[in-house]
Write a structure and sequence with these properties.
Number of domains: 3
Bound molecules: flavin-adenine dinucleotide
Order of helices and strands: EHEEEEEEHEEEEEEEEHEEEHHHHHHH
Mean pLDDT: 94
Largest sheet: 8 strands, mixed
Low-confidence stretches: 1-9
Number of strands: 18
Oligomer: single chain
Number of helices: 10
CATH topology of the largest domain: FAD/NAD(P)-binding domain
InterPro entries: FAD/NAD-bd_sf (IPR036188)
Protein name: Lycopene beta-cyclase
Organism: Fodinibius sediminis
Structural class: alpha/beta
């Protein structure tokens, strides 16, 4: 990777991107392909080595972002319910997988080769604003940098209070990327959620991304408040491979482990860390509470920031969810957190009575109120009535 490390003790930039993960590098990519590339931009991260540690998936209608970097596209989505497996081809939204290593390597090489971008590897200790509120300041152990604006995805915003969260739900998972000697996977089909009968923790399911008929990534995923021991996730994957594909441990080679925890919470969106320091990505509260999906929203945010900088010199912020979608998220969170058994029943009806395109449109918040009503009418209403009652005060706060 071509990289340039700034060696100045203190240097002034137009913009600093603090954190070179999904959101920081998405913003860098959007800046690079806009007139903003004429500005001086610094990217700081504790580790600038591209790692294959995350597989970002998203559904998209039309040409997806980073089309040349997409590792795999699926046009059929499978859902495993207790009684049946539903496989549906999708027309409007296709499902895409992007490997973090491909994305990070490409963006870091591109910005590393550009005269106006600097890269600095170091741990960020503090982000602040000058007393006049005209300059944003980034401090690492060794150096300080200043800029008109800092865009950060590293530090928890000071205004964030853990105790304010009513539903501290987490999406936690461990996955194996594996290769098999014989062709067992259908690589046209992504298994979005397989609610196997043997999965009992909270709302739990297998998520499977087949790369080919002989390789893929399988993640045992749980929506609950508590993480599991590593062995517990692994046992589920071992058993699933045996039950579903007749594979015993000697039949496959594990090449990589992917592990993660994604907040699925009623956390408030806190756009600003402090004046002139904007929060990005997960720290910016972009994760959709009821699904954990974040990557598409990160793209919307990057686009909005660049548009704002170009049109009036200040970063724009993406449109926030409308009240009705905030309400749906909160009700679904309530059901997932406090009524996990009912949640499985809701999923059963949701996936049986609606097409995947309709569900993706709803989760994308692109559906009309009429389409929402159709979806709501397709699932059991009692869990929602309980959720509406229980979350009524919280709804007014978020
Ligand atoms: C394993 C995994 C898989 C996921 N898959 C999906 C998916 O399929 N679809 C989806 O929509 N969402 C997914 N998500 C959720 C979300 O999209 C990702 O977490 C995404 O990476 C969030 O982007 P981010 O920029 O906010 O954080 P990150 O990508 O984590 O980037 C933060 C960066 O900040 C750096 N950093 C942190 N602290 C410091 C510090 N003090 N000093 C310097 N640098 C620092 C880190 O090194 C990192 O590079 C996934 C999450 C995980 C954990």
């Amino acid at each position: 990777m071509a990289s340039k490390f700034s060696d100045s003790v203190q240097k002034r930039y137009d913009y600093i991107i603090a954190g070179a993960g999904a959101s920081g590098l998405s913003l860098a990519w959007h800046m690079l392909h806009s007139p903003i590339a004429e500005k001086n931009i610094l990217i700081v991260d504790a580790d600038l080595t591209p790692e294959n540690d995350k597989t970002w998936c998203f559904w998209y209608s039309g040409t997806p972002p980073y089309a040349d970097l997409i590792y795999k596209k699926w046009t059929t989505i499978e859902i495993g319910l207790s009684s049946e497996r539903i496989a549906q081809s999708v027309d409007e939204y296709h499902y895409y997988g992007l490997r973090s290593v491909d994305f990070k390597r490409t963006v870091l090489e591109a910005v590393g080769a550009h005269r106006n971008f600097d890269l600095f590897q170091g741990s960020i200790k503090q982000l602040s604003c000058s007393p006049s509120e005209e300059v944003a300041v980034l401090d690492t152990e060794e150096q300080s940098f200043e800029a008109d604006y800092i865009f950060q995805s590293c530090l928890e915003p000071p205004g964030f209070k853990e105790e304010a969260i009513h539903y501290p739900l987490k999406q936690h998972f461990l996955g194996w990327e594996l290769t098999v000697d014989k062709p067992v996977f259908d690589d046209s089909t992504c298994v979005l959620m397989d609610f196997d009968k043997t999965f009992t923790e909270g709302v739990s399911f297998m998520y499977m991304l087949p790369w080919s008929s002989k390789s893929g990534l399988l993640e045992y995923t749980v929506f609950s408040g508590q993480l599991l021991e590593k062995k517990a996730y692994e046992n589920k994957i071992t058993r699933y491979l045996d039950n579903r594909f007749g594979l015993s441990p000697g039949d496959y080679q594990i090449s990589r482990i992917e592990r993660g925890v994604i907040p699925m919470q009623d956390r408030p969106v806190i756009p600003w860390y402090t004046s002139r320091v904007l929060n990005l990505g997960t720290q910016g509260g972009l994760t959709k509470p009821s699904t954990g999906y974040t990557f598409s929203r990160i793209q919307d945010q990057a686009r909005a920031i660049v548009e704002g900088l170009l049109s009036h010199g200040a970063p724009g912020t993406p449109a926030v969810s409308s009240f009705r979608f905030k309400a749906y998220d909160l009700w679904l969170l309530d059901i997932l957190y406090t009524q996990p058994r009912e949640a499985l029943n809701v999923f059963h009806h949701l996936f049986t009575n609606n097409s995947m395109d309709e569900i993706f449109r709803f989760l994308n918040e692109d559906s009309s109120p009429f389409e929402d009503l159709k979806i709501m009418a397709s699932v059991p209403y009692l869990p929602f009535l309980r959720a509406i009652w229980r979350s009524r005060k919280r709804l007014m706060e978020i």
